[in-house]
Amino acid sequence: MAAVTIDGRNLVVEMPGWEKVWALKGRLEVPLRQVRGIKVDSAYAERPKGIRFPGTYIPKVITAGTYLHQGEKIFWDVRDPQQSVVIDLSGGKYSKLVLQVEHPDQVVSEVRAAIGK
Fold this sequence. Notes:
Layout: E1 3-7, E2 10-14, H1 17-23, E3 27-31, E4 35-40, H2 42-45, E5 51-58, E6 62-69, E7 72-78, E8 84-89, E9 96-100, H3 104-115
């Protein structure tokens, strides 16, 4: 389960333990100016993922890492879609982050407050 925090002008995502291995990434930092929106969206987390580039995919168990889908580069770290948030980005490496977090509504509120929406 990813930990999402705000550190100054950056959105920071940290993957704990084995999730670092599955996602092939332990930490992401995204400038807050690139964050266009965030929402709780379990339906998005259940949709087709695209082509793994690189990452881990075990159906109905875990989706982690970078995926290419319809021309978009999306970072995933989800085991339980019911606890996932989707963060829309622009101008950076990824167009979206799809993350399982412990308290989705709280993360959405914190990120929206940080980006002024």
